[in-house]
Write a structure and sequence with these properties.
single chain; alpha/beta; 6 helices; 13% strand
Length: 218
């Protein structure tokens, strides 16, 4: 399964959990993803959601004082990576507000950094659903902003009893599936970086009459 560093051309990944909680199952899953990425030749920038926490988005605040430090930090680290991996909890069948708020802030940079950047979405939950409903909701803002969200998301059900003492998944078949998902995502990002296709622009809405207040074309 693993490749040597010599076989894989340089690819950098931002990895973080979307939970602010110290003992988060999603943080454990993000840690496991980071280990797998590094084991297969990727360069990992490991982050914490609290580094990207921002006050509620407000255009008046942005116009008067610019971007908050959390938005600047997420923007900077997205710009430095080739792909991102987010392990997100499910809140009320959707994504956490703290993550959506950070996305809203960072989407206001010009150019906004999600366009054409590859993303892999993970979730962990004690429930049998595994946080999967939240990931489908999370795809919406990312894909709207032009991110290339990997089709095969990974949702870990009954996550409170899924990890062994070493932080790996106790079920070997599930661990193999997780590793395969990570490596396949890495292959896609590597190919995109070193053998890119041309995407000319991200346009927020097609078909509208030109209007400076509405236009967001990059």
């Amino acid at each position: 399964m693993e490749q040597s560093n010599a076989q894989r051309r340089t690819v950098r990944f931002l990895v973080f959990s979307a939970s602010l909680r110290a003992d988060s199952l999603n943080t454990r899953l993000a840690d496991l993803a980071a280990v797998c990425l590094e084991a297969n030749g990727g360069t990992v920038d490991r982050a914490l959601m609290r580094e990207f926490d921002c006050p509620s988005y407000n255009l008046d605040v942005q116009s008067g004082g610019g971007f908050p430090p959390g938005a600047d930090e997420l923007h900077r680290r997205l710009e430095a990576c080739d792909g991102f991996v987010v392990s997100s909890p499910e809140y009320n069948a959707s994504l956490p507000g703290v993550l959506k708020n950070a996305i809203d802030w960072v989407s206001r940079y010009q150019p906004q950094p999600f366009n054409e950047r590859h993303g892999l979405l993970l979730s962990a939950s004690p429930s049998m659903v595994g946080g999967n409903r939240g990931l489908w909701a999370l795809r919406v803002p990312f894909e709207h902003l032009g991110a290339r969200v990997y089709p095969d998301m990974f949702s870990l059900a009954q996550a409170h009893k899924a990890f062994d003492r070493e932080g790996r998944l106790a079920d070997p078949e599930l661990q193999e599936r997780f590793d395969t998902n990570i490596v396949n995502f890495m292959d896609l990002v590597e190919a995109s970086k070193h053998y890119p296709c041309v995407k000319r622009a991200w346009v927020e809405y097609l078909g509208e009459r030109p209007e400076p207040v509405l236009d967001r074309v990059e």
